[in-house]
């Protein structure tokens, strides 16, 4: 499909620079099948789902993956985006023309890394020196990797260390938050439990590739970056049981959705999964593992807007986004949410 079909104009002031407070007071645009759109709030979610439904959250934890260092006199910026080994990460490099295979970068506070091979996408491998776990090294020298559309407008600060983690964050390894889950609070989860709506977790370590624009003119020519994920046997069994009893599997975030769809077969059975996924969902895709989605509002021409258009139909999502823009919904990672029930 032509990527231009997924373009739209977004006023700059619709980009949220801070999350709603409390988190569950964010707005919620509900699209439920052919029904008219409804303007609600995230805290209204228990009334929009059914007893027996199950929400699926991503329990990945964002690491301080934005690094600033030097190689000799050259300043080098690095954004880690995928672990390739115990001490090796793949990273997008700023000032990459000053970096060569074998060069050592000093990221400060005693943290050193040697550049390895350069991939087709321009990223470098970085091998971190020493014996300490890389996560501890990053705590010393890294900062929270806010999306570029926020970081270009204000500096990262201490508040982001809390704001950019979900209440489910447990497994370190993401370089971007699964932002739909940022809206959830313990009180909201208790209200959902009281309404008979269950929840479970999986792990998908979100990579920086999620922010990369689609540069191809046709979706068939776009290559997704792989991300590592895991669904264990107990979680797969639970989700299959939910659907067998007539409940719906509602992914919270496109990351949860993409991993479930990677694990589901054509028979619509979800199986255990552990490894990389580079699934790219565009209109015409037949969903196998999920029945709905809670998600934020996405960038024009992005793979994520293509995904929601696959779920609800392109014209429906174009109309929903036009409504959201006209009604001053807040967009992107710290913005408002939508509930999409095809």
From TrEMBL:
Reactions listed under catalytic activity: 7-aminomethyl-7-carbaguanosine(34) in tRNA + S-adenosyl-L-methionine = epoxyqueuosine(34) in tRNA + adenine + L-methionine + 2 H(+)
Cell compartments where the protein resides: Cytoplasm
One Gene Ontology CC term in the entry: cytoplasm
EC code(s) of this entry: 2.4.99.17
Alphabetic keyword roster: Cytoplasm, Glycosyltransferase, Isomerase, Queuosine biosynthesis, S-adenosyl-L-methionine, Transferase
Record-level GO BP terms: tRNA queuosine(34) biosynthetic process
InterPro entries tied to this protein: QueA, QueA_dom1, QueA_dom2, QueA_sf
Pfam families tied to this protein: Queuosine_synth (PF02547)
Molecular function terms from GO: S-adenosylmethionine:tRNA ribosyltransferase-isomerase activity
Pathway participation: tRNA modification; tRNA-queuosine biosynthesis
Domain of life of the organism encoding this protein: Bacteria
Presence of the UniProt keyword Heme in the record: no
NCBIfam families, per the entry: PRK00147.1 (NF001140), queA (TIGR00113)
UniProt xrefs under HAMAP family: QueA
Assembly: Monomer.
Function recorded in the entry: Transfers and isomerizes the ribose moiety from AdoMet to the 7-aminomethyl group of 7-deazaguanine (preQ1-tRNA) to give epoxyqueuosine (oQ-tRNA).
Assigned protein family: Belongs to the QueA family.
The name this protein goes by in its record: S-adenosylmethionine:tRNA ribosyltransferase-isomerase
Gene: queA
């Amino acid at each position: 499909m032509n990527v231009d079909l997924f373009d739209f104009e977004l006023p700059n002031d619709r980009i949220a620079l801070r999350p709603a407070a409390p988190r569950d007071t964010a707005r919620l645009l509900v699209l439920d099948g052919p029904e008219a759109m409804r303007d609600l709030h995230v805290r209204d979610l228990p009334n929009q789902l059914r007893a027996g439904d199950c929400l699926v959250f991503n329990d990945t934890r964002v690491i301080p993956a934005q690094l600033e260092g030097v190689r000799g006199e050259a300043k080098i910026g690095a954004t880690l985006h995928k672990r390739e080994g115990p001490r090796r990460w793949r990273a997008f490099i700023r000032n990459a023309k000053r970096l060569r295979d074998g060069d050592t970068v000093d990221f400060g506070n005693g943290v050193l890394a040697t550049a390895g091979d350069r991939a087709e996408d321009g990223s470098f491998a970085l091998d971190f020196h020493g014996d300490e776990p890389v996560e501890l090294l990053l705590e010393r020298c890294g900062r929270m990797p806010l999306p570029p559309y926020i970081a270009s407008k204000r500096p990262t600060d201490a508040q982001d260390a809390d704001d950019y983690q979900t209440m489910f964050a447990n497994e370190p390894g993401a370089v971007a938050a699964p932002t739909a889950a940022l809206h959830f609070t313990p009180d909201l989860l208790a209200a959902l439990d009281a309404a008979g709506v269950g929840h479970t977790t999986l792990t998908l370590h979100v990579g920086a590739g999620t922010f990369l624009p689609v540069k191809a003119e046709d979706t068939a020519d776009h290559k997704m970056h792989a991300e590592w994920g895991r669904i264990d046997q107990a979680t797969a069994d639970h989700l299959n049981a939910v659907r067998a009893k007539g409940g719906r599997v509602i992914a919270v975030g496109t990351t949860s959705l993409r991993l479930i769809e990677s694990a589901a077969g054509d028979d619509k059975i979800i199986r255990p999964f552990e490894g990389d996924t580079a699934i790219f969902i565009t209109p015409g895709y037949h969903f196998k593992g999920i029945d709905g989605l809670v998600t934020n509002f996405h960038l024009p021409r992005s793979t994520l807007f293509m995904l929601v258009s696959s779920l609800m139909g392109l014209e429906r999502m174009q109309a929903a986004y036009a409504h959201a823009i006209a009604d001053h919904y807040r967009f992107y990672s710290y913005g408002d949410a939508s509930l999409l029930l095809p």
